[in-house]
Amino acid sequence: MANNKTQHILSTSSNLLGFCLVVLTSFKISKFNEASKIDEITGIACILLIASCILSFLSIRTAKEHFSAKYEKIADNIFIVALLLVFVVTFMIAFSFIF
User: Potential cystine with 33: which of 25, 37, 39, 78 (Cβ 3.0-4.6 Å)?
Assistant: First the structure.
């Protein structure tokens, strides 16, 4: 019974990827990236979210149930890590905790 979470992972990770790209672009434009680690954390979150999107898409497109479930599980685990990084970045921005 694979693909029960895949569509949700794909749509949510692509939306969060857009959020991360806005944050990353904002920090690059405002020159805060020299004095902050937020852009590095956001960059890692972007890479993880892209990986989650690709694996979710592969899970949807794969015909074999075994591989589909495997891709979904990996995408789910990567998505959780990326979501935690997005939480850290949001926390740091909201409370002006920039290091």
Answer: 39
